[in-house]
């Protein structure tokens, strides 16, 4: 097959994914859309009746909403890792995953961004978190990790969106050629009239490189800041120096898991087996294994630090985490995040897509549980036994959580039909 | 008069381009479009490296200044001691300064890309589609030649 035919096949194959959704697609979209609508409806109910509709109360004042916030921010991270970091390292398998991973980042940050709002008792005052001149002559407290979070997450969303869009520009020009009618006009405008002239490529390459170089430290800073929401406090189980690297590794781990969860079915349904190969999946499975090892190491270090400190509150907290009320969650988490991924040391399993898909779902569950365990056990069991108490979620909590998954999958499904799911330009370049 | 060559592969395209340039065709008479970045073209046409990096530096520096300026100014505007930290708590403000460095750096870099590349290209948006699918060389000649 000549290169010219390969290019044409590539374009038609990738763009064919954007035509005529199947019944299955509509069913999936309707289902996830319904879950999302349910979540939003429950949020509306919570706003109407008051924050008591949620199960979070003293002493567990941060509960499922914050668990979900950390979970979705974490999911977002590996999108940037796969795009930016692997771009800087010139890893070629990146071009099979980068578009879906970047879309996943943008969508996951949107989902995550809702949760601090849902968590607020009076959400209509959320703009108080922004520093702006006001008649009360008050400013936000820049010494507070919560304000750092506002800056970190909104910067992360903006920069990921720019990065995602920049990567799309030459591909939108390809889509523009194949589309008809109104769609053609939309792609024409979105592609900014891209022509592929040498000076355009010259500026474009610099832009892409700088955005990758910005995104890499950004991704590390964002989850570090999220971890400092906890680590800056004095609660045993939160107040530890290992939190930033521990959270960053966990974020990349969970995000890589989610990429596999999304791309395995996407590749099959959209018929992209030729371009996203088993070798590519093996490479990404290695990242999953590597980050799982880092996360497991962090679990050990947490316990080792508590033991070595000799601090009675620290040791009491960690024995509570392992053996207390939430022990089943913790054991399940260890199984999903530390034990099951060890099977990836075996090459046949790394190359088995069904296995990878199932494992990735376990990783998603495990990483959700990790955040749950960190947040809930620490608050439920702090210094003073008179201040202990357990957390019981309400239907509103659970419904909004499920709704966030609905939102994420709904937006991802819409993405697969609206935009090229593979970076056509890069796959062409690497086909040489 | 315009002569045009279309290629499906990079090698034949580069051969033709080299041939044209060797024959003394001035690069400004050539219009070249490629489906992806071809580094050899930059060398052949002696393109200068993009000045985008200067804008990136300016944007990042502006963001850093804005980050420090915002945090320090607002703390001094209403001095309120919290958490036993100094009014101007530099280590805490590093984070906001860092995030704004990246935010404004990225936005300015993207804006500079639009400016330097003369985007959006209206004539392509409103009609004549570009043929960036293939490797294209157009040679524009004076009418009287």
Task: Please provide a written account of the structure.
The complex is a heterodimer of chains A (432) and B (145). Chain A is 74% helix and 0% strand. Chain A is an all-alpha fold. In chain A, helix 5 (145-178) runs antiparallel to helix 7. The two termini of chain A are 13 Å apart. Chain B folds into 2 domains: 2-49 and 130-140, no CATH class; 52-116, no CATH class. Helices cover 53% and strands 11% of the residues of chain B. Chain B has 5 helices and 3 strands, in the order βαβααααβ. Chain B has helices at residues 10-22, 39-44, 52-77, 90-116, 122-126, and strands at residues 2-7, 30-33, 135-140. The longest helix of chain B is centred in the last third of the chain and has 27 residues, at 90-116. The chains are: A mainly alpha (432), B mainly alpha (145). At the A-B interface, helix 1, helix 5, helix 7 and helix 15 of A face strand 2, helix 3, helix 4 and helix 5 of B.
What labels would you give this structure?
heterodimer, A: 432 residues, mainly alpha, Formate dehydrogenase/DMSO reductase fold, 15 helices, 74% helix, 0% strand, globular, B: 145 residues, three-stranded antiparallel beta sheet, 5 helices
The main sheet of chain B comes to: 3 strands, antiparallel
| Cα distance spanning the termini of chain B | 9 Å
Structural domain count of chain A: 1
State mean pLDDT of chain A (0 to 100 scale): 91
Strand order of the largest sheet of chain B: 1-3-2
**Share of helix among residues of chain A?**
over 70%
Describe the structure concisely for a colleague:
The complex is a heterodimer of chains A (432) and B (145). Chain A is mainly α.
Strands, helices and their partners?
The complex is a heterodimer of chains A (432) and B (145).
Chain A: H1 3-16, H2 23-49, H3 64-88, H4 94-119, H5 145-178, H6 181-190, H7 198-231, H8 243-269, H9 278-309, H10 312-323, H11 327-339, H12 347-350, H13 353-380, H14 395-418, H15 424-431
Chain B: E1 2-7, H1 10-22, E2 30-33, H2 39-44, H3 52-77, H4 90-116, H5 122-126, E3 135-140
Antiparallel strand pairs in B: 1-3, 2-3
Helix pairs in contact in B: 3-4
């Amino acid at each position: 097959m000549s290169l010219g035919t390969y290019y044409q096949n590539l374009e038609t194959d990738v763009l064919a994914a954007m035509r005529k959704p199947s019944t299955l697609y509509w069913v999936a979209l309707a289902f996830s859309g319904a879950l999302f609508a349910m979540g939003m409806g429950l949020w509306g109910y919570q706003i109407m009746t008051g924050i008591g509709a949620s199960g979070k109360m003293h002493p567990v004042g941060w509960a499922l909403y914050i668990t979900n916030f950390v979970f979705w921010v974490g999911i977002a991270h590996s999108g940037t890792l796969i795009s930016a970091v692997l771009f800087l390292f010139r890893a070629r398998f990146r071009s099979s995953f980068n578009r879906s991973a970047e879309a996943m980042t943008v969508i996951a940050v949107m989902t995550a961004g809702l949760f601090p709002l849902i968590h607020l008792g009076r959400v209509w005052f959320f703009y108080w978190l922004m520093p702006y001149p006001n008649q009360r002559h008050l400013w936000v407290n820049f010494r507070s990790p919560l304000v750092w979070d506002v800056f970190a997450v909104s910067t992360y969303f903006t920069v990921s969106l720019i990065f995602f869009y920049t990567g799309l520009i030459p591909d939108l020009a390809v889509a523009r050629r194949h589309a008809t009618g109104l769609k053609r006009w939309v792609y024409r405008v979105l592609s900014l009239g891209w022509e592929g002239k040498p000076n355009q490529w010259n500026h474009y390459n610099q832009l892409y490189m700088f955005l990758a170089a910005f995104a890499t430290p950004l991704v590390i800073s964002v989850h570090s800041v999220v971890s400092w929401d906890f680590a800056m406090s004095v609660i045993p189980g939160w107040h530890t120096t290992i939190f930033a690297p521990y959270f960053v590794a966990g974020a990349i781990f969970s995000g890589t898991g989610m990429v596999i969860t999304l791309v395995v079915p996407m590749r099959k349904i959209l018929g992209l087996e030729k371009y996203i190969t088993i070798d590519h999946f093996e490479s990404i499975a290695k990242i999953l294994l590597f980050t799982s090892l880092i996360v497991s190491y962090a679990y050990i270090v947490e316990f080792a630090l508590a033991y070595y400190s000799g601090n009675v509150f620290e040791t009491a907290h960690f024995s509570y985490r392992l053996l207390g009320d939430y022990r089943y969650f913790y054991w399940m988490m260890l199984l999903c995040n530390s034990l099951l991924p060890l099977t990836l040391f075996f090459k046949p399993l790394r190359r088995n897509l069904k296995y990878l898909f199932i494992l990735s779902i376990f990783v998603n569950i495990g990483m959700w549980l990790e955040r749950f365990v960190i947040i809930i056990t620490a608050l439920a069991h702090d210094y003073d036994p008179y201040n202990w108490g357990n957390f019981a979620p309400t239907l509103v909590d659970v419904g909004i959580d499920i709704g966030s998954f609905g939102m994420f999958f709904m937006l991802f499904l819409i993405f697969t039909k609206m935009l090229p799911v593979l970076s056509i330009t890069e796959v062409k370049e690497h086909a040489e | 008069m315009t002569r045009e060559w279309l290629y499906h592969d990079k090698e034949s395209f580069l051969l033709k381009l080299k041939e044209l340039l060797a024959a003394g065709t001035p690069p400004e008479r050539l219009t070249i479009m490629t489906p992806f970045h071809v580094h050899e073209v930059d060398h052949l046409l002696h393109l200068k490296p993009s000045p985008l990096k200067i804008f990136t530096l300016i944007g990042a520096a502006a963001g850093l200044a804005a980050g420090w300026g915002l945090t320090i100014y607002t703390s001094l505007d209403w001095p309120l001691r919290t958490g036993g930290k100094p009014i101007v708590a530099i280590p805490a403000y590093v984070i906001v300064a860092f995030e704004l460095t990246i935010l404004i750096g990225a936005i300015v870099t993207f804006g500079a890309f639009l400016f330097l590349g003369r985007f959006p290209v209206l004539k392509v948006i409103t009609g004549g589609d570009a043929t960036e699918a293939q490797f294209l060389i157009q040679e524009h000649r004076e009418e009287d030649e």
